[in-house]
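User: Here's a structure from my thesis project, written as structure tokens. My advisor, Dr. K., wants to see whether a designed sequence matches the one we expressed. Can you design one independently, without my sequence as a hint?
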């Protein structure tokens, strides 16, 4: 007779430790049931990983599932697993019926990531039970300390539970008692225990592997031949001895008055299931852990190879209760040898949890890869071209992040991922897209469309303005909706230009300020509210204003008082620069008629790709962040962004995100935005290039230059998004990458400790103006016909030593002489940001780059104060700063204040410069005289002459 099938004559059921879709579909499981009398199936992450990751067997099922809609990786796997379990359960259902619910089970494991989470285990087990919806399902729960309460709770709820990862007899006793207590609870609640079955999966071969290793070490150290022989005699014996004694505990536990009371109501004893029965030591029989553990009312779950081996040459006998006293002797001899079985089994549980978690990582990685393949260009592609050294560092860090479960910790909002500061309070952006109230935005958009507005103007700074600006510059005007504009300046000419650009009678203003206390949006609101009130009347003016602000802010109170048409609340757990996919970005989007539903739909594909269940090696946001952070540590800290024409403004948003998040504590990445690509010779060795474009945008000259940079050894990242409608994916990718890079750099990427310093200086100066009617007097270090030059004594002394005398050109030449390899030069212009001025600064910065071979930044104030200003003051001391100011041709009053727009801007420039010099930065301020256009031309000429 077939030895496998004959095991049932000894009271032992054989279950198969294997499951795969084709195995069930092709009838192979049914054959084993018929031929071998197989009575159950067990699965675990390792089994599913081999089935899904090592073949194309599941590709069609994954494709079909995704046709019905994208889903998170864990959900996608679970969909596949539930189908497999259902199919196997259906094949085994006749066995279940024949043996009256004692056999015929299929086991499905709760996520190994929940091994130390009682509540999470209970929740997931209940959900799996409901989703599989088969009476012959067993849910696997680990025998960890946290698993024990779950076993009792779930048994009491009427679930069949397979307790896994049992090595210790002491823990087994606790598990059995938890099962009994659960049955008692079920009965007390009026439930029928006869429908409940449970097994305690007692692992075997892993014990011998661990014990034998320690025995071999002691044998090697022993000098006495008899001691060597005694120790050697224990090898391959401990696991079986441990199991035999566990079986004796089983007999005691499921007897006596307490158990008989439950048995009278139909309760079934929790059988011991021998797990890990594949022989790992080649010196031992390949059926050792089957032949030596045959006993009544037990289960042996075997892998296919062991099943085949036992069918071929297995020997049958009732071995489980043989030589029980000898089993006790073996364990006593082990203890005498100084080897603690308790310590070994405790460690094996930890290792088992880790091994299953590792397998789950591989499994989810395989599913993530197959999902990405199916979705194709629906998810923006990303390719990293790194030097061998940097690539190796990224691979090492990827594995470290995986092993330490850092991406899951990040999603659990665990601040230990960063500095254990307050990072956990600022992670609302992780899931904000999934919580978007699409219907509300659609209703709001319909209302906006009904108002026939011609224009919409966002009044905000930094995170409140740069995201909306990307949307305004990227998406064309939508029919029936207002044209979207952004104003983020206190420059009088720029404010006036915006006023002249729009029809005040047909414009809606979005006042956007997280705290409500930011100077710029408040004075801009005051100005435009007064102008709108004059145009359409004070009573009607409030209906042309929308507020986006955190609950309870001062802006909310003002908005209520002035009768704003709508107040949208931001989420306090999202910092400004991470807020574009929250109301701060979505309200402007909806106002402009951009399809918020489509934007969020595409964004969620990237959210899922960067999810907690996507291991770092398949997680695009994590990979980009690790590369950025590690490159920064290796000196490639100038993150140079090349967005294509269709998404040209994306760089300004990313610049703020990266600079304000990472530039602090003397560390950080310096983003470089707006530099057109140059020859290889123009660059130093400190660059990290990111090329970003939409599908179909090709520029042969640009691509050739980028390839040359890669071939020269510069790190290059290429990202291609399907269309502008997918821009939300890139917002999210870069947010995740920046958060990860912050962890690598060892900083808190969600605070901005140095931004406040300039604000304090500005408030001091404006307060002085309110008091005296003028800003405090300042003395230039030199005054020429073209400009007054300002700096502190330390900078002035250095510049004079470097040859600065009475001319503008000499001071600039001395200033640029302080630029060294791997520095960067930032031109900080407190003037109107318009096309002409952008071109002028762009020309000057490229001249600096090409002559000095350093990174350059061209910024407009006060806009950059809420962006790169943090990195300039708090980041690495590698910046050389040239601030550019000028008297305003025509100032503009702020209603209700003495300080005009021009005065506020001047105070901001001076406050910014004072902090730079206080921080010891290499800084020079040029205050142009007379006509601004002429002054800029003169400055540009002087810069070029100084460089030559």
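Assistant: Designed independently from the structure alone:
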């Amino acid at each position: 007779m077939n030895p496998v099938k004959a095991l049932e004559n000894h009271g032992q059921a054989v279950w198969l430790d294997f499951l795969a879709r084709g195995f069930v579909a092709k009838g192979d499981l049914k054959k084993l049931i018929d031929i071998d009398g197989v009575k159950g199936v067990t699965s675990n992450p390792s089994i599913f990983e081999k089935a899904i990751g090592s073949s194309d067997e599941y590709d069609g099922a994954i494709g079909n599932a995704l046709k019905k809609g994208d889903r998170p990786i864990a959900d996608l796997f679970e969909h596949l697993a539930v189908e497999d379990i259902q199919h196997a359960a259906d094949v085994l259902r006749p066995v279940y019926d024949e043996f009256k619910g004692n056999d015929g089970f299929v086991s499905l494991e709760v996520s190994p990531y929940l091994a130390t989470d009682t509540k999470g285990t209970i929740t997931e087990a209940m959900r799996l039970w409901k989703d599989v919806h088969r009476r012959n399902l067993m849910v696997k729960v680990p025998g960890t300390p946290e698993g024990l309460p779950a076993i009792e709770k779930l048994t009491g709820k009427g679930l069949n539970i397979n307790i896994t990862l049992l090595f210790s007899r002491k823990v087994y006793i606790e598990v059995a008692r938890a099962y009994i207590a659960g049955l008692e609870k079920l009965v007390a609640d009026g439930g029928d225990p006869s429908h409940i079955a449970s097994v305690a999966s007692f692992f075997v071969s892993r014990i011998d592997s661990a014990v034998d290793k320690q025995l071999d070490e002691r044998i090697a150290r022993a000098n006495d031949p008899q001691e060597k022989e005694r120790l050697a005699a224990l090898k391959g014996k401990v696991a079986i001895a441990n199991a035999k004694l566990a079986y004796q505990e089983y007999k005691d536990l499921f007897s006596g008055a307490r158990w008989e009371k439950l048995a009278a109501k139909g309760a079934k004893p929790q059988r011991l299931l021998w797990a890990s029965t594949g022989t790992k030591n080649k010196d031992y029989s390949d059926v050792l852990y089957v032949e030596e553990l045959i006993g009544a009312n037990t289960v042996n779950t075997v892998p296919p190879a062991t099943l085949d081996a036992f069918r071929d040459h297995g020997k049958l006998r009732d071995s489980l209760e043989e030589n029980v006293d000898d089993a006790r002797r073996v364990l006593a001899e082990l203890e005498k040898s100084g080897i603690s079985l308790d310590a070994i089994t405790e460690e094996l549980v930890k290792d088992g949890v880790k091994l299953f978690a590792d397998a789950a990582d591989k499994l989810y990685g395989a599913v993530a890869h197959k999902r990405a393949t199916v979705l194709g260009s629906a998810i923006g592609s990303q390719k990293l071209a790194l030097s061998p050294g940097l690539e190796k560092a990224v691979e090492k860090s990827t594995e470290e992040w995986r092993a330490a479960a850092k991406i899951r910790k990040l999603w659990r909002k665990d601040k230990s991922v960063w500095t254990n500061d307050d990072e956990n309070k600022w992670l609302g952006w992780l899931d904000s897209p999934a919580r978007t109230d699409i219907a509300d935005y659609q209703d709001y958009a319909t209302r906006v469309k009904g108002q026939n507005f011609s224009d919409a103007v966002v009044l905000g700074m930094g995170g409140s303005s740069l995201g909306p600006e990307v949307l305004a510059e990227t998406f064309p005007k939508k029919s029936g909706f207002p044209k979207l504009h952004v104003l983020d300046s206190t420059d009088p000419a720029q404010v006036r230009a915006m006023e002249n650009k729009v029809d005040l009678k047909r414009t809606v203003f979005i006042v956007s300020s997280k705290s409500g206390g930011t100077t710029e949006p408040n004075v801009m609101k005051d100005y435009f509210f007064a102008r709108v009130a004059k145009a359409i009347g004070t009573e009607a003016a409030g209906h042309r204003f929308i507020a986006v602000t955190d609950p309870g802010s001062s802006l909310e109170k003002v908005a209520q008082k002035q009768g704003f048409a709508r107040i949208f609340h931001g989420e306090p757990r999202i910092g400004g620069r991470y807020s574009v996919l929250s109301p701060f970005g979505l309200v402007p989007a909806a106002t402009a008629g951009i399809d918020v539903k489509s934007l969020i739909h595409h964004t969620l594909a990237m959210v899922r790709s960067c999810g907690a269940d996507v291991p770092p090696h398949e997680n695009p946001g994590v990979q980009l962040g690790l590369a950025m952070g590690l490159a920064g540590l290796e000196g490639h800290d100038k993150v140079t962004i090349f967005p294509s024409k269709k998404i040209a403004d994306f760089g300004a948003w990313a610049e703020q995100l990266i600079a304000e998040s990472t530039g602090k504590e003397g560390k950080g990445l310096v983003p470089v935005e707006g530099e057109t690509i140059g020859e290889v010779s123009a660059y130093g060795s400190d660059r990290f290039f990111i090329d970003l474009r939409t599908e179909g945008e090709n520029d042969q000259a640009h691509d050739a230059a980028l390839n040359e940079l890669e071939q020269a050894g510069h790190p290059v990242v290429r990202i291609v998004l399907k269309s502008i409608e997918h821009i939300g994916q890139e917002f999210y990718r870069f947010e995740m990458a920046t958060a990860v890079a912050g962890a690598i750099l060892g900083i808190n990427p969600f605070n901005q400790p140095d931004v406040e310093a300039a604000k304090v200086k500005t408030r001091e100066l404006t307060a002085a103006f309110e008091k005296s009617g003028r800003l405090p007097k300042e003395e230039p270090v030199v005054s020429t016909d073209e400009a007054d030059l300002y700096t502190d004594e330390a900078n002035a002394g250095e510049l004079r030593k470097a040859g600065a005398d009475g001319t503008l050109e000499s001071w600039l030449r001395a200033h640029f002489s302080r630029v060294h390899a791997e520095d960067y030069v930032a031109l900080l212009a407190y003037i109107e940001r318009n096309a002409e001025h952008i071109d002028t600064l762009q020309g000057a910065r490229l001249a600096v780059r090409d002559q000095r071979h350093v990174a350059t930044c061209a910024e407009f104030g006060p806009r950059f104060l809420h962006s790169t200003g943090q990195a300039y003051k708090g980041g690495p001391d590698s910046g050389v700063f040239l601030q550019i100011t000028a008297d305003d041709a025509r100032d503009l009053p702020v209603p209700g204040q003495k300080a005009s727009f021009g005065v506020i801007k001047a105070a901001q420039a001076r406050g910014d410069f004072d902090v730079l010099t206080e921080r010891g930065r290499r800084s020079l301020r040029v205050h142009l005289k007379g006509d601004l256009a002429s002054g800029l031309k003169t400055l540009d000429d002087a810069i070029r002459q100084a460089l030559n």
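When you compare it with your expressed construct, this may help: Residues 167 and 345 are 5 Å apart (CA to CA).
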